[in-house]
Design goal:
Keywords: Hydrolase, Signal
Number of domains: 2
Radius of gyration: 22 Å
Distance between the termini: 28 Å
Pfam family, one: Glyco_hydro_71
Protein name: Glycoside hydrolase
Low-confidence stretches: 1-26
CATH class of the largest domain: Alpha Beta
Structural class: alpha/beta
Number of strands: 24
GO molecular function, one term: glucan endo-1,3-alpha-glucosidase activity
Oligomer: single chain
InterPro entries: Glyco_hydro_71
Helix content: 10-25%
């Protein structure tokens, strides 16, 4: 039996910021969610964008960083996104994916400049430091001077480059690293802030954008995207959010809203349109590890941290809630997977049922039960996570105060310890009350 309790002291450093419109203040603390436009195709509608925007706003997210490539539908989706944002008091900015579309570097006059000419002055574009924000995924070494001179709107360029590749043509840096890794390989160590500290040291006061992510698992064969690995993610979300309050970056980005292929989405599933689940050209799809695995409840953990990051002070909780997550199979199970063996790093995660309690006051008792095992934990105030047993069955959770049950529920997905058709290290996430 494995039972452990982890309690986090959650404080935000700095002073409270006044509440003002995004475009009116030069350098507010803002929070973005990385949004993969390249998976949308032609089926994503204006109403889909509105739905996403409303969910993001309810979480405290200020804008989507629109990761784009050179797909045929890119400009249609950009138009829909900016239309929805303007109509709903939300912000956006473009993040050019140089890794997926190297042509952004070689053909910037036709691929980058026209889009920034159109959207940098748009009322829905994020304005930071009195300039229109733009970012990238990769693109190290690209000189933005030619783009600046060709775009009539002043740009605040904060790309994801390696810290050593900062150059005079950019204004700051975004650090994509949000998972424990070494040379992009899984490691069995907790996430730390060494990369964040190094980036800030190289920037010499220029703005730093930090990345937060809840999970990472992907399972594509060499015949498609050739990605079959995971990063240590058991308690990554809360651990990393706590690091945000320590580092106090100028800007914060969450990876991601909808990257289903790498399992780090916090936005809604689209079970009616599995074609959105990052299909490969050979027909492989993330649907095999994403369908039926919602992550929405993680937004309830993110929300109070965003408020603390922006305003300073402690994380504030107003009502009791349980957010739980767990994998569907034990890590050592042998699956009859027709495509692939177990992912690299499969030995790293704990076999556990995790539950975070959002508690406005101390003194409640949490019980996690599954497969005949039960574990009890005394809960402090704030956001604290707990590790329960991992066994076959549907986990259930009870929170009591002075002996009286105030929250109780059972997860809908059962843990299975046999009959595994395909490797799946994604997290099933839920909450009580639902």
């Amino acid at each position: 039996m494995k039972i452990s309790f982890l309690s986090l002291t959650l404080f935000a450093l700095g002073t409270a910021a006044s509440v003002v419109p995004l475009q009116k203040r030069a350098t507010p603390k803002l929070v973005f969610a990385h949004f993969m436009v390249g998976i949308l195709g032609t089926t994503y509608t204006l109403q889909d964008w509105v739905n996403d925007i409303n969910l993001a706003k309810a979480t405290g997210i200020d804008a989507f960083a629109l990761n784009i490539g050179t797909d045929s539908f890119t400009d249609t989706q950009l138009s829909l996104a900016y239309t929805a944002a303007n109509a709903n008091g939300f912000k956006l900015f473009i993040s050019f994916d140089f890794a997926a579309s190297p042509g952004f570097g070689t053909n910037f006059q036709t691929e980058v400049v026209p889009r920034l000419q159109t959207y940098a002055p748009n009322g829905a574009n994020v304005v930071w430091n009195n300039k229109a924000l733009v970012s990238t995924f990769s693109g190290d070494g690209f000189d933005w001077s030619g783009v600046r001179s060709a775009v009539s709107t002043q740009l605040e360029i904060i790309p994801f480059y390696q810290a050593a590749n900062i150059n005079p043509s950019i204004d700051g840096l975004f650090n994509w690293q949000a998972w424990p890794s070494a040379n992009n390989q899984p490691v069995n160590t907790p996430m730390n802030t060494s990369a964040d500290v190094f980036y800030k040291s190289q920037l010499n006061g220029k703005p730093y954008m930090m990345n937060v992510s809840p999970w990472f698992y992907t399972h594509y064969s060499p015949q498609s995207f050739n990605k079959n690995f995971l990063f240590k993610s058991d308690t990554l979300l809360i651990d990393r959010l706590n690091q945000v309050l320590q580092i106090q970056p100028d800007l914060l980005e969450i990876a991601t809203w909808n990257d289903y292929g790498e399992s780090h989405y916090i936005g809604p599933l689209h079970e009616d349109r599995p074609q959105l689940y990052s299909p490969a050209s050979n027909g492989e799809s993330a649907a095999s590890w994403v369908s039926g695995f919602p992550h929405d409840a993680w937004r309830d953990i993110i929300k109070p941290y965003i408020a603390a990051y922006k305003n300073g002070g402690a994380v504030q909780i107003s009502s009791f809630e349980i957010v739980y997550w767990y994998r569907p199979f034990p890590k050592a199970i042998s699956c009859s997977d027709p495509r692939l063996g177990p992912p690299t790093g499969s030995n790293i995660p704990d076999d556990a049922v995790w539950a975070a309690v959002l508690a406005p006051t101390a003194g409640t008792v949490l019980t996690i039960s599954v497969g005949g095992f039960s574990s009890n934990f005394t809960v402090p105030a704030g956001v604290n996570y707990f590790e329960g047993n991992f066994a076959a069955g549907q986990p259930s959770f009870t929170l009591k105060q002075n002996g009286n049950t105030i929250l109780s529920g059972t997860a809908s997905k059962a843990i299975q310890t046999s009959n595994c058709p395909s490797y799946n290290f994604n997290a099933f996430v839920g909450k009580i009350p639902a």
